[in-house]
Amino acid sequence: MNKSILIIIICLLSFPFSLLAREKKPVIQWDENARKAEYLYLEGLSMTALGKDDAFYELLKKAHELDKENTAISFYLGHCNLMLDTQNKEAVDSALSLMKSHIDKFPADYFESFIYAQLCSKLNKNDEAIRVFNSLVKLFPSKNEMKYKLADAYALSSDFKKGIEIYNEIEKIEGASIFVSARKINFYISINDTINAIHEAQKLIDDNPKAVNSYILKGDVYMQLAEPDSAILYYNKAQQLEPENGRTYLSKANYYHFMGDSAQYDSQIYNALISENLNIEDKLDVLTEYIRSLQEENDSSERVNSLFSVLIRQHPHETEIHRLYSSYLYYIKDYKGAAEQISYSLDIDPTNAEDWKMLMVIHLMSNNYPKAIEAAQKSMTYNPDNLELYQYIAPAYTQMKEYNKALEVYDEALKKIDKKDNKLISIIYAGMGDAYFSMGDTIKAFSSYDTSLTYFNENAGTLNNYAYFLAESNKDLDKAEKMSYFAIQLEPDNSTYLDTYAWIFFKKHDYETAKTYIKLAVEKDDTNSPELREHYGDILFMSGEPDLAVEQWKIALETKKDSELLQRKVDHKTYFYK
């Protein structure tokens, strides 16, 4: 809190009541409101210490209503408003204006000014960020971190020359460094000053001819300038100085990737990953990028598995490695392997709620619902207050047709949930609707969906499921069409939602429109959904294209072998109702 505010409060409390009595009543009211506002503000700060941020926000709003002149209150109210909405331009401008009122009055409040300038920078208010960072640099000349921020702010405004000037000032104080030189080089390249970019890199080598990173940096500069022949000379020099330097292997890997030499690229990546002097964070970044490049080339997974094996042997207790490997295996639909890897991560750190969620999702995707419930229950022992976990337990029970257990889980979640968390409440009621519909209780199902939309009317999942089940029940198809259309507007690339929209038109006997949207759904589908293919076949048949319909039914039957209805369609080459 600002010292001046404290002084005002002390003065008010010690002011003789006899003098107050002689003042006009509006002045007494203003003093009283200011005192109440300050009390609410201090009470709010105590709430944040207890982790009750919502309470802090409510107290701030009340305090601001009482005293709009208290800039400290205005600042933090603006900050809270900004955290709630960064998409609405008017809301952002209003929030920043509240914060600015304090910065303009107390520019030497270092912490608040820094936060405000940072937010301005992130929100592309670069001129304002530069103004405040400049003010901080003048007020706190010994704090070099402000100079770094100011240089970057100039860069965001494309004033790279000014940014270079600031970095030159930093160098005079701190001396030359790889970081500052690298930043200056990027700025020089941004203004097409290649001569100074190369000179900046050479300057580091001249200062310390045995510094490996200086040679790597100059090689990187030449790679940025698309001069690979010059780049490899400096990488080789770096490797001569330190043959096992992991960063040299990375730079050479980029060089060989640029040259299209996949064998050498693989070799350098492998050497980087087994290097002892490359930290685990860098190794994970390398591996992530390597996996991405292989996926783009539709390459086999053998090389990826081999590299993960190397890393795990090196770092068997690093959860991030197992987590990344699990994500990769999940991506290629090796659910058994993915579950195994995330389980290793949980053995190391059983308190990680995100890993438990990942394990539950893996089991749900592989239709192993008992395992998903088992994982959820174990997770609850370590994370009893994590209500998101209920979202995995209840649907698993629904899939197992244990609907009453699913509803019990949802009821338990509703008892514990924050009553202001409308989105989560909406999700829970949507899940209850799914369970009731699966039980055959359409009245309670549709009532639950209505409640879900009351709490959050843009819940795309609720809109889709409600619409689909209305269509399946042949009830209020116009309402179903409107809801399904709204769901597609919210998620236009969702193949399931497009399938629902097509199915509603099928139910309305508008087969041409249905065919348009089912084709789009098939194009967007990356799961090879048998339900979607079956719907496609049904729509094609009713559109007068029985041969094409049978082709789609056969595709659906490949992954839905136990469907008697689908088998009948294929065998008799005709459409059957359920």
Radius of gyration: 31 Å
Most strands sheet = none
Strand content: under 5%
Assembly type: single chain
- The span between the termini is 69 Å
| Overall outline | globular
Sheet/helix structural class:
mainly alpha
- Which spans have pLDDT < 50 for at least 5 consecutive residues? 1-29
Total DSSP helices: 33
Mean pLDDT: 87
Protein architecture, described:
The chain is mostly helical. The protein has 33 helices and no strands. Helix 20 packs antiparallel against helix 21 and helix 32 (546-559) packs antiparallel against helix 33. The longest helix has 25 residues, at 25-49. It is globular, with a radius of gyration of 31 Å.
Q: Which features would summarize this protein structure in a list?
A:
globular; 578 residues; mainly alpha; disordered N terminus
